[in-house]
Automatic annotation (TrEMBL):
Basic and acidic residues composition bias: residue spans: 269-283
Positions of transmembrane segments: 37-60, 233-255
Any GO BP annotation: lipid droplet formation
Coiled-coil region(s): none
Name of the protein in question: Seipin
Organism listed in the record: Cephus cinctus (Wheat stem sawfly)
Keywords: Endoplasmic reticulum, Lipid metabolism, Membrane, Transmembrane, Transmembrane helix
Keyword Transmembrane: yes
Organism domain of life: Eukaryota
Amino acid sequence: MIFGRLLHRIGEKWFNVQKKTSEGVQSARDAVFRGGILLVSAILVVWVSIFLYTAFYYAYMPSMSYVRPVHLQFKSCDETKGICSFPSAYVQLTKKQQLLMVGQPYKVNLHLEMPESPANKELGMFMVCAQLRSRDGVLVEHACRPAMLHYKSTLLHMLTTLTFSPMMIFGTSEEKQIIVLELFGNFEEDQSHPVTVIYVEIQSRHVEFYSATLMINAHLSGLRYLMFHWPVLSSFIGIGTNLFFIALICILSYLHFATEEDLTEENFGYEKGEPEEDKDLKSSSDLSSDSSSLEDTSMLEELPKSQDESQSTLSTDPIIRKSGYIQELSGLYSETSTSSGIAK
């Protein structure tokens, strides 16, 4: 007996140990699974936040600058030296429908590379005009700006030449100036007539130049200025904001689904409990039907008693007996009258 009890206790302890180990393994599996889901969700939320900020940056921020070469053309003179027409050029910005962003101000500058030649020094000031045109040839905006070489005295010119003479000998430096003309300072694109062509004209036949370049720079302000000049700070703020709102949406949706699951479980338990209540209702209805049947039987039993009592009262009460006798006499009289009528 003692040996059997010991074996029974050992078996119970072993069963408890197995149960605890299985429960611990299951809880560890659940914890690892939940941790994995949480980690994957966090990584997904972070990547979605980064993607949203990147997409917003490239959709909201315009291209900072556009550079187009200006190939100036003119008509050569047949009899004399020089040119016989104003140098001009049509600069095509894009072959698409639109290049510039609507609502964003731009600065349109012309970089004119001119030599410090005697002809340009004697030329003095000259005019440079530009026209912004759409694809269908509509004139959107027109502007003209004066230009000239930067003044240098004879002494300053000699000192500059002596200082940079070694580099000028080796070809790394030249006697030239780059004139920057701001043709349009605050131009905004018109959505109905987007600019695709710029017409440039130098209104002088004695000007000398090496090359010309058209530069279009975006003039940023507000949020775009902050996003361009402080990209790291703006990226941290934008990604953090996206992360906060996405995490808030995920938490609210999780709570919503959790409450729905709890409600469905309660409804399911309530539906499971309904048959018992139906049984109780059926039993109560059966009891009520039995009681009603008993009442009916009792009522039926009481009916003959009441009839007997009524008969007994008729037999005992003389007034009631007299009325019954009168009724019998009237019935006999009616029968005799009907029989006599039939005989006639």
